[in-house]
Structure formats: C-alpha cells, structure tokens
C-alpha cells in the first residue's frame, strides 16, 4: 500500500506546514491519530482548525483526540488528470475526496482517496482513514475505500 | 429599493486587441482599452479624475495608466482580486462620485493572461500556497491547488444533489460557443462546439473537460462610470445601474469546509429587492463563467431556475438567443476571452445600448440585464443594469 512513498528517496509532494493554529492536528497525524478542534462554548467541532471558533467566535477551544479508528462517507470528490503540484505527476488521476466523518458532527476532511480506480469513486461510499509515512517523522492522513 | 437606483451609469466601454501573445505590456494594453472607452463615451481623458484596477499582481497600476493618458488623477486605487472585482469597483465608483471625491471613474483590468502570468500556471512555492490560502495545509499536500479542483469539489456535490449530468455542463458550453460564432472578436470564433464532440472530450479535472474551463487571453478592458446627470453630456447611450450588491461572502474563509452554500446565494437574496425587479423581468444576462458549472450554480443562486429545474433550463436552450435568458452573448469567458469578468460586462452594456441592432447578435428589445461576478464560492457580487 505504501510502496510508492517508501521506494522514492525523497518525498516530492508538499508536506503539511505546521502553524500555531493547526499543530495539534498534524502532530496527531504524525502519530497516526486524528485530533480535531472543538469549541468549549458551543461544543461544535471545528475544521480546519483556527484561532477561535468560527461558529460562535469563542476564543475558548480545545483539542479532542479520536484515535486511529476513523471512518466516514464520501461527500464529494474531484479527479485530476494533470499534475497541479510537484510530485503528483506520479499519481494520476489524483483523486481528492471530501469525507463526512462518522465520529463527530459537521466535520468533513479532504484527502486523497488512495488505491482506488476512478470508476470505484462515488458519493456515499464508505471509507476509512489511513496514514502514510511521508518522511521519517511526518505522516499524512488519507482515505481508503472500505472493501 | 436602493436609493441610488438609476442615478449612475456606465457611459464608456473599451477593449484592447485580444490574443494569446500580445507581445507587449499590460500598460500598453490598458492604454488601448482606456482610450477606446474614453472615445466610446465621447469624453476627453482629462474628464476622468479617478482610476481603479484589479489584478493578481499581473497588471500595471492605475497611476501608470493615468500618467500615460496625460492625466494627473485625483484618485487612484488598485485592488487584488479576480472575479466579481468589476462589480465591487463599480459600487466603489458610485460611492466616490456620490461623496464628491470624483466625477468620472475609469475601471480597468489588463493582463497578459496567456503569455504572462497564467491563472492555471503554477510555479508558486508550495509552502507559500499553504500559508497564503486559508486552511491551505489541509488541501495543498493533497494536490488541490487549482480553482478547477476547489470549485470542482462544489460541482460534484451540487451536480449529485441537483441531478445534473455531464451533458448539462455541456449545454452551458455549447450555448456560449454558439454565441461566439456571432462575435468575430471571440477567441473561439469559427470553432463551434457540438454536444457530440463535447461528450467525447476527456476530463482535465473531473467533472470538467477543457471546454468547461475558461480561456486564458492577453487583453485589457475598461469601463467608465459617471452620474446620470453627467451622462447626458456623453455621446454613448447610458446604461444605468439599477441595483448593485458589491460583495457578499461565504460564512467561512476556508469555504471548502461547507460545500452546501456559495457567496452568490447571499447576493441572490438581495439583488432583486435592491433593484426593485423580479428574476423573470430580466431580458439578458452576463453570468460569470470561469467554469461551466459556475453558471449552473449561479442560475440557482440568482433564482433564474430552481435546483430541480436547472438541467432542463439549460437543456431547453434558455441561455441561447431566443431562449428565456440569453446569456454571455459574446461567448463569455468560455469562448470569447478572459479578463476576470470584465469582458462580460462590456458585452451586456452593448446589448442594453442595442448596439447590435439589425444583426442576429442583438437580444431584441432588451431592457434589463443581470451581471454577476464570482470570485469563487467565497465571494460574489452582482448588478442589474437597464437602458
Ligand atoms: Zn463555538
């Protein structure tokens, strides 16, 4: 499953930039876990993470770790046949899926749908989160079809 | 209704040569477009006291343009932005004149969009992209760096919910390409598109084929706005701003987080009340068309067709001449040329002046037109014009 990433000497694709607002998300991803920001006031989940709650403006936010068992259904997708960024020329079509996550309400996470043929992709299909080790200390969450 | 309805008008429109390789600078192109707009209005350059532009770091400045028109401007402003910036700046022009800061405003967009900085061009640092775009770290690592993908994500979901097929996207393309065949200045003049050919074209980025993408061209466009009072001195037939919604925004800067709504929905809620008309009163439209699907989504947002009726609306030929709402009658950005929307504003102005009268390009007797701007699902604006 991870053969392409493991055999290439250098990871050519963009590596997620950690920022003051998103660091816990990517730190958890590096551990093959999902962490999502949540508002302590209105209790709603927040994604992508930010400096405050976009639902109510509250500055009081916390992080909740959902572990490694994350599932969802495809909400929308695109399939791109030309590389838009470095590294994706090896990976065409690039399938990008936005997935409605089962473990929390109102969160849709966008990632590549890996190991899927274009004709297998459809709205409503069940997927699970999987993590690809892209460098020695970084991992990237991806979606895979539940077979 | 809007207090200033009918008190301001577009009195001049002009463009430069349009090509794939201008061989010159955006300043030269802007000068051509500005001189043509000034000539069209029957004004002198010195009658223009404010100059404004929008760009994506690919243009000249307003101050440069004014300088080489031989004018010391009272007011210059250059904003960053693409689609919907024309409407935004026209609303600004109205405010400037209303508040006595200016009397006649020239707005331009100049770009070597094919030979220079290309919108689909890439070459940006990926770290820069991640920090420049809200939530960029959550899309760039997945190869999602083009508007065709950002908007495409909305399109796939919306098409699923609205029962739209590839053929419906094709109807938008085929309709606009048909208009381009009546416009000798359109890039795709002489290159009509059949549905059969469209459906055989492969995807560049699903659900879009190359026909669903706008063109990239080198060109400049200019528009002159002044008061209805002042318009009486101009030689052109004024086209009045009946209503305008300068800009509305999606609830989240990371608009991909909610594919169920677009900024245009909020513009659609206000524009008709603002102009004091109903959608069914419209005779002609210029609908921002960076992608074919964007037209379908706006037909819904602007209440021209219901979500359930979108597919039938375009399949019945309602965007074509003789349809319910002939739209993008010069070919639009899909087949005429691309200046982030301003070329569509030029065309609707000419339609409302009845400039094509006696030819098959004229929308017979049109009086009311809708012009929409779409920066993306994140921001949009619109205006309603009348003659
Ligand atoms: Zn909150």
Automatic annotation (TrEMBL), chain B:
What's the domain of life for this entry?
Answer: Bacteria
| InterPro entries per the UniProt record, alphabetical | Thiolase (IPR002155), Thiolase-like (IPR016039), Thiolase_C_2 (IPR055140)
Q: Which GO terms describe its molecular function?
A: acyltransferase activity, transferring groups other than amino-acyl groups
Domain Thiolase C-terminal residues, every copy: 249-376
Q: Which residues form the signal peptide?
A: none
Protein name, per record: Thiolase
